[in-house]
């Protein structure tokens, strides 16, 4: 990359793995070790783990793009940043899936660039002289019409989820783990990052199901903690699959959902969010569904879709899914409401 070496190092440290060392932040030299450690702890929690991982990936893409063209990435000028973002939005541009990037993803790329500049104590391109051009480019991207909107991933609703679990007929560790992961993931409407972070100490059994405490998540970046009630039932049976997995794996403490070695042996490390997506796709394929239609988010979307289908109270859905606003839940309910009490019901 081209730019100030010290600033560059600080930026990379700040958006790398969540381990903000004192060297990455200019703390007062007279702070003692205990005070430094406390400040570092809360600096590290300023953004959610998943957000920092995304920023790190976005920043690498930007610096690589700049390197290939001989542009400075730190600091980056507004016009260079605009050129990068407009290429992502241009029809025919290529990236991971060969399609123009979505507007929200382009916005996140810009947020990562701004984050890196602020971490390096440099003016981000959004406030530099000439920032008006970047602002106009972003408005143009937001206003552009897309004729190639990517297909939405299919939710793993109760019927799909039951099919997926029923087709897991083996008795290997991975089979027990996947049955528990799928049923709890769907019934808890968990985000992938929340699901893989569940620890034995976070789960309490109740006559009606499981109470899972989420200490920190995307919707709770202050770390207040949220409790999720995973309702048991005869169809999804999350409690039975949870107990069976812990018993056969011999897990009494630590992460609930563990990585397995290529030979099927249990490890002490939790599965990754990417593994959740792979499990969903693999088990959907085994049940006869097109795996390309599913993602790790399908479990969370499946619960909300099914709840909307059965007329669940919107506020209860928001409470369970831990969304910040009702508007974010509207898409899960809108399609179901379109056919409820339809004007043509009496003569169709």
TrEMBL record:
What are the protein's UniProt keywords? DNA integration, DNA recombination, DNA-binding
Instruction: Offer one example of a GO biological process linked to this entry.
Output: DNA recombination
Give a yes or no for keyword Heme in this entry. Answer: no
Task: List, alphabetically, the SUPFAM superfamilies matched.
Answer: DNA breaking-rejoining enzymes (SSF56349), lambda integrase-like, N-terminal domain (SSF47823)
Source organism superkingdom: Bacteria
Q: Does the keyword Mitochondrion apply?
A: no
**Molecular function (Gene Ontology), one example:** DNA binding
Q: Which InterPro entries match?
A: CB, DNA_brk_join_enz, Integrase-like_cat_sf, Integrase_catalytic, Integrase_recombinase_N, Integrase_SAM-like_N, Phage_Integrase-like_Recomb
Sequence ranges assigned to domain Core-binding (CB) in this UniProt record: 33-121
User: Residues in domain Tyr recombinase?
Assistant: 151-348
Protein's recorded name:
Integrase
Say which species the protein is native to.
Answer: Sphingomonas abaci
